[in-house]
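Morning. Coffee machine broken again, so started the prediction first thing and wrote up yesterday's gels while waiting. Chain of 198 residues, entered below exactly as on the submission form.
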Amino acid sequence: MAAGAPLFFSAEHLAVIGDAGAISEELLTDFFALTESDWRQWPYEVRTLRELDALEHPGDAFAHLVRYGKGWRDKRRGRDCRDFYRICLNDTYILQKTCGGDKNHLLPFMVYVLVHELVHIVRFGRYRYLPLRENGRVMEEARVAELTNEIVGGISLPGLRGVIAFFSGESREPRGAAGEPVPRARVKPYRRCSDANI
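Came back before lunch.
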C-alpha cells in the first residue's frame, strides 16, 4: 500500500495522538470500570515508526500490539507487573488514510485505533486471555472489534461515525469529519514476544 519513502508523524500529529490516547483511556476506564490500579498493572506505551525495531514494525496494518512478558522468576514481588505492552503505530499508513494527518481526520481515526488496541490490553490483563492459535486470534479480533464499536459508538466526535463504518466493513472508505473518504487498510493481529527484557 505504501509506495516510496515512509511518512512520519510531526510534533502536531503526535499532540493529536496524545489527545486521542487520553480520550481512549477515559472511554475504557468508564466502559470496563477500570481503576488507576488496573492501568498500573498493565503498563503500555505508544510508539511510532521511528521508534520501532524491525520485529515491532506493524507491516501493512495501521497498528498492532506487542506484548512483552516477564518470567515469574524475574518478578520481584507479587504486585510487580508481569506484562508490558507496546502499541506500534504505522505512521505512513495512518497519514495516508487521514489526509496527511489533518486533525479532523487523525483524531477520530486514532481514537478508534487506540481504543481497539487498549481493549486487547484489558482483555489480556484482566482475563488473562491470550489466544495462541490462529483461529483464536481471528475470534479475538472479531470480539475486540465488537467491543471497540460498542465503546466508541456512544460518543460524539466529528468524523468518528465514518471511521466506525470503515472498520466495520459498512463503508469501503472511512469518512473524515468533513465527509471525504479515507481509504482502508488491513488490521493486523497482535504479536507476543515472550519473556523479553523490559
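The longest helix spans residues 103-127. Going to sketch it on the whiteboard this afternoon.
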